[in-house]
Amino acid sequence: MFSRSLLLVLLGLVCLQSFTTAQNGNTPDPCCFSYQTHKIPIKVITAYEVTDRRCQKHGVIFTLKSGRTVCADPDIEWVQKHMNTIDQLLYESSTQP
Fold first, then answer.
1. Which residues form the Chemokine interleukin-8-like domain (predicted)?
2. Which of 33, 30, 35, 27 is nearest to 75 (CA)?
3. Which CATH number is associated with domain 34-96?
């Protein structure tokens, strides 16, 4: 009787875990919770990504050469310039034979 009860409890926990994991799949990833306070040199940035619109705080995530990611405020001028520069570099590299 004890093993049957234990089995039912474990089965219930597994079901609860799967429901919890499924609900977490609807959250945006990644989001910014704070912004970089100083300008990042363009030469150390390899890529950027705009955060999902479901995030509470709109942001731009820069990937640095070190592999680290840094959030920045997309309304700041240097952030917009860096995004445009990266877009331009990617466009130029894709159009060259």
1. 28-86
2. 35
3. 2.40.50.40
